[in-house]
Amino acid sequence: MDLGLNGKVIVVTGGGAGIGAAITRACLAEGARVAVLARHSASVDEFMAEMEASGARCELVEANLEDARRCEQAIREVEERFGSIDGLVNNAGNNDRVGLESGSVEQFVASLHRNLVHYYALAHYALPALKRTQGSIVNISSKVALTGQGGTSGYAAAKGAQLALTREWAAELLPYGIRVNAVLPAEVMTPLYRRLLDATHDPEAELKHITEKIPLGRRMTLASEIAAATVFLLSATQSGHTTGQHLVVDGGYVHLDRALT
Ligand SMILES: NC(=O)c1ccc[n+]([C@@H]2O[C@H](COP(=O)([O-])OP(=O)(O)OC[C@H]3O[C@@H](n4cnc5c(N)ncnc54)[C@H](O)[C@@H]3O)[C@@H](O)[C@H]2O)c1
């Protein structure tokens, strides 16, 4: 199936690790050019070196997205280097566990900057470019937006707001033909997930406990499966009439009958 992404320029935040890296790979496999907006880290360096060695049309724009000014500069840099923007995948985030009891108001606001404000800032600054291409936005949210988790108010607020903004922007951007959708993962093994798991008393027992409750196949969702849903939503040829949608890719974890597991 041709997704019509050949030569398109896609911005992927956090696109050098975990789910973002899988999205970058999927976009590249479709012939797209990818601007990875991410903080510097050893794993991101390693990923970018692999991309360079394979000749992939992928460049890093190094940015701490918690800084809104840097978001503006990063979008400008992408436009200078790539010439246009056809898609924005807001993906970077961190389940930072700022709880109602355990956190403070200051930590809550900081969590919103870590997880939410850059979704708005990047969409805002990329909008003129997206209008020119009738581009598309995909927001990576989380099951936490629908189910809660406990002890993570900042992250939950951000993830819920991402779903509201998906619908809000889909409505606001109708006149420009810009589609906006969200993908909601639940349990995907990534560096972030590994860190959270390793912080538990018995990581392997915890992992078994979680996967046993995932109805389809009793397994974690693959990052490549989140990426496949994302490239579909980026594709104007294949999802050209899909906007304002929240697509839960989780093996039935959130919505199927508990009795099944
Ligand atoms: N892994 C899961 O099971 C899961 C479940 C639900 C939702 N999600 C969501 O998927 C997205 C990706 O998660 P992941 O598990 O791949 O995370 P990850 O930490 O493994 O990878 C995210 C990448 O984004 C970068 N990043 C994060 N915040 C940044 C910032 N402010 N500025 C620049 N770079 C930043 C990180 O450094 C890292 O390279 C997140 O929005 C997360 O909330 C993940």
Give a short synopsis of this structure.
This protein is an alpha/beta fold and about 260 residues long. Helices cover about 45% and strands about 15% of the residues. The model has no long low-confidence stretch (mean pLDDT about 95).
Mean pLDDT: 97
Backbone CA Rg? 18 Å
In the CATH classification, which architecture of the largest domain applies? 3-Layer(aba) Sandwich
Q: Care to count the β-strands?
A: 7
Low-confidence stretches: none
Walk me through the structure.
With 261 residues, this protein is an alpha/beta fold. The protein has nine helices and seven strands. It folds into two domains: 9-186 and 223-248, Rossmann fold (3-Layer(aba) Sandwich), CATH 3.40.50.720; 188-220, no CATH class. It is 46% helix and 14% strand. It has a seven-stranded parallel beta sheet, with helices on both faces. The radius of gyration is 18 Å and the shape is globular. The model has no long low-confidence stretch (mean pLDDT 97). Bound molecules: nicotinamide-adenine-dinucleotide (NAD).
Topology:
Blueprint: E1 9-13, H1 18-29, E2 33-38, H2 42-53, E3 58-62, H3 68-82, E4 87-90, H4 105-133, E5 136-140, H5 144-147, H6 153-172, E6 179-185, H7 191-198, H8 203-211, H9 223-234, E7 246-249
Parallel strand pairs: 1-2, 1-4, 2-3, 4-5, 5-6, 6-7
Helix pairs in contact: 1-9, 3-4, 4-6
Entry keywords:
alpha/beta, Rossmann fold, 7-stranded parallel beta sheet, 9 helices, 7 strands, 46% helix, globular
